[in-house]
């Protein structure tokens, strides 16, 4: 993973004594690692997963717990380890917030983004704390979790969440655990809907390998075309051994 320099991060570039002291004490190589953790923490805090006072450059229990919560919400293995998949998902989520807030979408939830979110919250009658938590993301029309992303697409298929989401949740829990990178070692079925072959999902978007929204879009269309509703698909899935739909 490529380190991010302090010059690219407003709260580090102007962060004063703490950042400067860390650089002096640790040296350039380790300081870059601290910068990377601070970016991770800043994004987690900006999205409401981590308290703002925990943005300290230390990958401790609080950071790992916050990351596990984010990973679970976004179709990743909830292991608390910050790798390329978590970085991509975090940056994608932050970029979506930045686009709604009207600030440059660079994937880093810095001071400029926090100020833009505050302005957006004030303009829309929300508590202006600068954090894009569940209420703010919902008001922005953004999907905070993979399950919310699926629910938001139900209307396009004429389904109601109350009648059909429970079936979809059980179906995809059984198929993939709602994990974006889930791969069946025997068949090669892939992603949240376990498409087989996996490349079928390319019809929904070129980012099908990594984007849960794209996978969900394809999966819901497949269910609609083949079974009509998630409950019909789940009924068929349960009737087969081994399970498939």
Number of strands: 0
Q: Portion of residues in helices?
A: 40-55%
Largest sheet: none
- Helix-strand sequence: HHHHHHHHHH
* Mean pLDDT across all amino acids: 90
> What structural class should be given to the helix and strand makeup?
mainly alpha
The number of helical runs is 10
Task: Give me the Rg, rounded.
Answer: 20 Å
Q: Strand share of the residues?
A: under 5%
The tally of domains stands at: 2
Low-confidence stretches: 1-29
Distance between the termini: 38 Å
Could you explain how this protein is built, in words?
The protein has 245 residues and is mainly alpha-helical. The protein has two domains: 6-139, no CATH class; 146-239, no CATH class. The protein is 54% helix and 0% strand. Helix 2 packs across helix 4 and helix 8 (161-175) runs parallel beside helix 10.
Short summary:
The protein is mainly alpha-helical and 245 residues long. Helices cover 54% and strands 0% of the residues.
Describe the SSE topology:
Layout: H1 10-13, H2 17-46, H3 61-73, H4 84-101, H5 111-123, H6 134-139, H7 146-152, H8 161-175, H9 212-227, H10 230-239
Helix pairs in contact: 2-4, 4-5, 8-10
Observed structural traits:
245 residues, mainly alpha, 2 domains, 54% helix, globular
């Amino acid at each position: 993973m490529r380190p991010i320099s302090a010059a690219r991060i407003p709260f580090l570039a102007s962060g004063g004594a703490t950042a400067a002291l860390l650089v002096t004490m640790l040296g350039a190589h380790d300081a870059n690692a601290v910068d990377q953790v601070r970016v991770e923490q800043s994004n987690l805090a900006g999205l409401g997963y981590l308290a703002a006072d925990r943005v300290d450059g230390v990958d401790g229990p609080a950071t790992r717990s916050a990351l596990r919560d984010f990973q679970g919400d976004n179709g990743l293995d909830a292991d608390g380890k910050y790798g390329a998949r978590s970085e991509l998902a975090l940056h994608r989520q932050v970029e979506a917030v930045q686009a709604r807030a009207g600030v440059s979408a660079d994937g880093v939830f810095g001071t400029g983004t926090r100020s833009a979110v505050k302005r957006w919250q004030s303009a829309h009658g929300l508590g202006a704390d600068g954090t894009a938590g569940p209420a703010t993301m919902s008001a922005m029309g953004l999907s905070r979790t993979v399950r919310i992303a699926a629910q938001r697409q139900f209307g396009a298929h004429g389904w109601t969440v109350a009648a059909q989401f429970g079936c979809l949740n059980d179906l995809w829990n059984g198929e993939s655990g709602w994990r974006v990178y889930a791969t069946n070692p025997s068949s090669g079925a892939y992603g949240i809907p376990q498409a087989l072959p996996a490349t079928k999902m390319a019809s929904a978007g070129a980012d099908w390998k990594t984007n849960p929204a794209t996978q969900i879009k394809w999966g819901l269309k497949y269910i609609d075309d083949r079974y009509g509703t998630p409950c019909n698909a789940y009924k068929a899935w349960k009737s087969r051994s081994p399970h498939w739909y």
